[in-house]
Amino acid sequence: MKTLLKTFGASLVAATLAGAVPAMADDYPSRPIGVAVSYGAGGATDFQARIVTMVAGNEDMLGQPMYILNKPGAGGRVGWNWFASEAEADGYMMSAYNVPHFIAQSIKGGVQYSADSFEPIANWGADPAVVVVPADSPYNTIQEMVDFAKENPGKVTLSGAGLFVGHHIAALQLQKATDAKFVYIPTKGGGAAAMKAVVAGDVTGGINNLSDAFRAAEAGNVKVLAVADLERNEEFLPDVPTLMEAGYDVDNASVNFRGLMVPKGTPQEVIDTLAEKVPAMFNHARVTKRMAAGGSPLRVMNREEVQAMWAKRQETLAELLEGL
Amino acid sequence: MEFLAYFGGVFEPVAFLLLLGGTVGGLILGATPGLSPTMAVALLIPFTFHLSPTQGLILLGAAYTSTVAGGAVSAILLKIPGAPANIATALDGNAMARKGEGARALHLSFLSSGIGGVIGVLLLIFLTPLLAQWALAFGPSHLFWLAILGVTVIGSLDSKSFVKGLLSGCIGLWLSMIGYDDIQGAQRFIFHDALTGGIHIIAALIGIFAIPQVLDMFAKGRRKVVIETVAVPVHAFSDSVREIGRSGRPLTIGTIIGSIVGLIPGIGGQIAGLVAYDQAKKFSPHKEKFGTGHPEGLIAAESANNAMVGPSLVPLLTLSIPGSPTAAVLLGGLLIHGIFPGTDLFERNPEVAWTFINSMLIGQVLMVIFGIAIAKWAAKIARAPLPIMASAVLVLALFGSYSVQQSMGDVWIMLSLGLGMYFLEKFGFSAAPVVLGLILGPIAESNFVQGSLIANAVYDDWPNVMYFMTGPLNIVLIVLVIASIGYSFLSHRASARADAAQRVAAQ
User: Fold this and answer.
1) pLDDT of residue A4
2) Which residue, of A143, A318, B362, B380, has the greatest Cβ tally within 10 A?
3) Quick one: closest CA in A to B192, which residue?
4) In what order do the strands lie in the sheet with A222-227?
5) Superfamily of domain A31-126+256-320
């Protein structure tokens, strides 16, 4: 029995390895490119990754289709651990990144990657965190809520999707900037569970994604008090002030940036090809149309811009998470 | 009655073909171990890019409905539950198939799925605004008590011994703690990288249910030289319909429990089948027959897991809050077509919303028709000689556990859990309580931690007592928990006394 299983396991492994035929960098890409997504099928990252990669096979783009490989678990750690330690650095396996998530996780430790394990290619989206309260909440502005929290330390509860994700970073930054004490309630099941806690009034308020908060506000379930970004979102929430405008020193470190990266050690020619073609792919008319229809904010950034953004995040987050 | 006006949309040629395709495809995907309803729906979303919103939703709705029912096929014939929803189906369904009653089991399962499903969708049509408020009423403290209520079922579920049932449940609870905990930021019992993300429920299900029986089959195949075949008598469909007609009690229990559980965000359909099975057992005059191939348990479980489909969409369609992983994927499918669910969905996009709901209604009927059509020849699987059957189940188990998230780690987890379960079963422990522990552990734990964080912020004195023990809904749930424990205890004592009396009489 045991040998049978062993043989079976070994042949499965062999079959997997046989699939990885070495390829020349000059005719790259000569076969489909995988994109590992560290979250489950159907989540926001997965769903956006499927949209932004759908035109990869066009002749004027990469000429080879991209396929999505879901590696969910432990808030993204499983997928990024796998990508850093096991993915081939030949350009045929890319991964979607979520900043600040993976940088914050690597600062907290217990994972096999850091920002230096990966080479960014391009950024496709940016979903800022916003502060929401239930529709029947007594607070109508962010100041009212912060003032109450200052007078009653530890009485204001804020829900968000898990630890060391954008929502948590925003809550930490708000706490630091206001000197008030908030109780952050992490939920399982992502932003949806955190939003449910706000709508149902289980918590005082919450930090959530701008796109989801916009829909909940449209439906009359919540009030959006502030955006944790450098500028207001003119498209969806033009009347909601940024935390900066409200007088709190909170920058855009919690904005959920999504894009594509490859493992360190990928040939430079491959990186150059991808860095040139991928932003064009993100800006394709069919992609922008689908992203807009889904209420997913698009923000295309090239490789140099992403490198600068990663470096800045690394610095801010290391300081913020120190001593936590 | 507004929905009647939109029935035409379902019968447009393209829409109807999609509905047919989604139903048949969903049945096949659902019957494949490792492909859960959530994954089936996620895989179909890219296809909807090329369709109109209504057509896309018809495809997704049909696939959702029929994958849940399709999971019963592998649960009954192979004892591999396709998804957590089908665990209870495997308990009696597989025992029936082994006796050669596979066709009867499949007929009953599809008929009860259909009935439960139609009632669930009707609830969605008529009571949505009312139910939406009810779905929101469950905060962390209530979800905690609900999970505890589920845990009390463990002792009496599919086990000869109350204590062994509880012990199996504890093993499941422990397994559920493995991995990175996203609420407290702790890493627990991670001895190997493959465990960072915890134990995936589908991989665990496949291992715990499939591997012990594979080992048993191999063991038997060795002892007996003669290949044992089961006679599979033809089972008339009309008999099954009559049998369903006589099974009012399990059908009612299953449908009611499925509808209520489906409505509560965060609990989802995972436990609907198991809770319904347990309740059907408690109310049945033939308790002792459960687990030996008794149709009542099968009917309750299958009507419950399809009744949950309609109500599980209530929080999604009215509040834009997905109540289950599958609903979250459906939300993605809606958004991509520019449709934002919310209170005014039925005013803004009535043709999309109603056609979607109607297609689920028609989908239930189609699912019953196609399900019955395959039952006759699918049941012949029981005739396969044991060694061939064992090899086939093993291949499906390996394939299924790998395909969940393309990870060899899951395959090893599946095999180790299966091997462990094989030995536990030799000592009289059973699989269902382990799985129930694995499902309920995280729900109970995360809601308790969240609840106590909130409690400490809200109350100054006795925060946890105030938060978890006061308020009408908490008290109702606590009373149910006590009643459930008391019932298990008393009935256990009664049966022990009856056994003793029998022994005395026999002497």
Assistant:
1) 45
2) B362
3) A78
4) A182-186, A156-160, A205-209, A129-134, A222-227
5) Bordetella uptake gene, domain 1 (3.40.190.150)
